[in-house]
Each structure stands twice: as structure tokens, then as C-alpha cells.
Amino acid sequence: MQVLRAYTVPVTADGQTQEIITTGATTRDLLTQAGLTYTEEDYLTPAADEAVPEGGSVTLQRVSYVEYTEDETVPSEVEEIPTSLYYRKQDKVQVVQQGTDGLDTVTYRETWVDGQQVDTEEIGRETQIGMIPTIQKVYGEQASVSSFVGPEVEDGVPVEGVAAVYTSQRATAYSASGSAKGASGRRLTYGTVAINPSIIPYGSLMYITSDDGKFVYGYAYAADTGTAMMTGHAFIDLYYETYDESVDNAVIPVTVYVLDDETAAKYKEQNDAILEADTAVGR
């Protein structure tokens, strides 16, 4: 004959503790004996189907959730565009786009256990007003002014396709209206330069860097000409999008690497797309 020993198990819930007599039962059984119901979200210790030994106890913690929404400001971020444009004024910062804060509607859920808040989590976010970043140009050593692309550059020199090199040449600077076109008919933007077309033909792709390497105009197209180039007072005139930029970079000794037509053709489609994108945003 088996003799079962009875023992008491304290069952705590809702701020009260009951002593339940049992000869062996699971947590679920003991809660039923205590007249307590619970949901799947409530915390049980031990688990519902776990046997509770002599000396053990049962705890039921009520869990509830509260959801609410709040409108939250999304602070404008700052994005920096490095450029060697300011190599003579390295502390200069030019704001290209002034940002504005955004607004999100955020849904939170609070978790409450036995009347005490224990956690808050974000469960949803809806953008009401998109955040617009502040975009600013800052000095970056050897960061190209132009967006146009070409062969990889190593130690300041294109790795392929160089047809001619002109060192220690006088580069001047100019600007024009946003819709201006050069003598070649090409729209002027960063990466278009004026030359003597008898030396460098219109449409040629070249890489331009200062002799000391601190300033990099980058890849550029021969798109315009001017008196200084035709008379030999300057070898090349670099286009800038503002008058102040042209003044800051008025005269620079540069090295010009002119690419052969075959190499330049590899990058035509990509550079045409860059020019089209710049046009679309009004650059």
C-alpha cells in the first residue's frame, strides 16, 4: 500500500497568499484548487504543467498591456559632402540644403505586471512629415570637386588610358548662370572646363589635380573656351557653380591628364547619367 504524504503549498496571486493542501499537483491544479483563473499572457512560476514538490510555492502574476500613440519630432540630420574645393579655407562649411525636422506618429505598448509598469516598447511608426537632412560641403583632402567618373586613380594618376600629360599648368576659375552652356554646346557644371580646343579637343575627358595633390578637381570634360586659353595666359579654366567658389580657387598650378577616346568612351554613359541627375535637381 502506498501512503501519500500531504503538504501545503503557498499560492500567491492578486496580493494574497493561500495555503493549499495537496499530496502532489501541478501549478495548474493548485491554481484551480485556489479558485484562480489566468490567461496565457500571465506569468506562472513554476510553469502550468510542472509538478510542485513539497517545500515549493506557486506565484501567479497578472500581465496587462496598454497601447498609446504619440507624435514625435524627428530631428534633422547633418550629411557632409567632402570636397577639396575648400583646400585654401579648410574650416569653411557651405550649406547646400537646409534641413527641416520630420514628424512621426509612434505607437508604444506598455507591459504591466501586478499593477507595476515593467517595460515600454515601440510597436509601430508612421511618418507624417519626412525629415529633410541638412547637407553641407566640408573640406576633404583629395576629395573630387567633380562628380564625373573615370579610371581608378592611384597616387594621383589615372591607372589607364592617359594619352597626354600637362604638368604645372596655370588653372584659373570662372562661374556662370545655372543654365549656361559652353562653346561646345555642353551645359556647364562641376566637371566642365574651358580649354584651347586646338590643344585639347572639345569633349575630351581629363583628370585634373593640383601639383601638390591637395586639391582635386577630378574628372572633367572640355566644354568651353575663353580668351585666356586662346592667348596662353591660362592653360585651363575650371568651372565652379558660384562666384565665391571661383574667387576662392582663382589660380592653381595643376597637372592635367587627358584620356584617350577609347578609355573616355567607357565612361560616357555613366557620366551622361550623372549630368542628367545634376540637371534634375537643379545643379
Please describe what this structure looks like.
The strands form 6 sheets. The chain has a 6-stranded mixed β-barrel. The protein has a 4-stranded mixed sheet with strand order 2-1-6-4, covered by helices on one side. Strands 7-10-11 form a 3-stranded antiparallel sheet, with no helix packed on it. With 283 residues, the chain is mostly beta strands. A hairpin with a 2-residue loop joins strand 10 (102-113) and strand 11. The protein has 5 helices and 20 strands. It is rod-shaped. It has helices at 27-33, 227-231, 243-248, 261-266, 268-280; strands at 7-13, 16-22, 25-26, 43-45, 51-52, 58-61, 63-74, 78-83, 93-97, 102-113, 116-129, 134-139, 153-154, 157-158, 162-175, 192-194, 205-210, 216-224, 236-240, 252-259. It has 3 domains: 7-61; 65-137, Single Sheet (Resuscitation-promoting factor rpfb fold), CATH 2.20.230; 144-280, Beta Barrel (Barwin-like endoglucanases).
Distance between the termini: 96 Å
- CATH level-3 fold name of the largest domain: Barwin-like endoglucanases
How would a crystallographer describe the biggest sheet?
6 strands, mixed, barrel
How would you write the strand order of the largest sheet?
Answer: 15-19-16-18-17-20
CATH class of the largest domain: Mainly Beta
- CA radius of gyration is 37 Å
Global shape = rod-shaped
Query: Under the CATH scheme, which architecture of the largest domain would be assigned?
Result: Beta Barrel
- Portion in strands: over 45%
Order of helices and strands: EEEHEEEEEEEEEEEEEEEHEHEHH
Secondary structure: number of strands = 20
* Count of folded domains: 3
What is the overall pLDDT average?
93
In which range does the helix fraction lie? Answer: 10-25%
Number of helices: 5
Which structural class is indicated by helix and strand composition? mainly beta
CATH superfamily of the largest domain: RlpA-like domain
- Poorly predicted runs of 5 or more residues: none
